[in-house]
Amino acid sequence: MRHILLATFLISATTVAIAEEPQYQPDWASLDTRPLPPWFNEAKFGIFVVWGPYSVPAWKDRGYAEWYGHNMNRENSPTWKFHRRVYGEDFRYEQFAPMFKAELWDPDAWCDLFARAGAKYVVTTANYHDGFAMWPTKYAQFNDTDKWNSMDRGPQRDIIGELNTAGEKRDLKMGIYYSLYEWYHPLYKNPDTRARF
User: Which Enzyme Commission number(s) are on file for it (predicted)?
Assistant: First the structure.
């Protein structure tokens, strides 16, 4: 009998808690009413880590080096010229992935540095526009190739998992940046007009 009463109480409490949660609509007007989390407003300083296969060439004439995979295919752009001069015209972007090894990467050392610098949160690119996932997943694709992630190529490590574990040990709030727009994903190269993103 006690178990039935306890279960009834827990279900009731959960239902009340869910009912009290504000409901948002999938539009900016509704989403803009969502309050800023107090910890974020108080944090003032955080770290944004942008890291992936584009860190191998780590080159850009101006702007963002992480757009290397896109700009190397823009004929006569400075990145296109640099890529052909340094890597050759037959070197494809996906060939950078095995070179992205992270062999000296120490997530604990990184998070120690972030915490000592006064950062309160860390946001990492879990998946940037090149589609390279920084965690083990079977869903990341490059062109028609699967296993486009840090566990199967390059470092062979769960970058996001390891960094989040290290950050949480230091009371850092951990977040991810996940780009839905991927230059090489088959759905973006040949979009299905019926798909709604």
Answer: 3.2.1.51
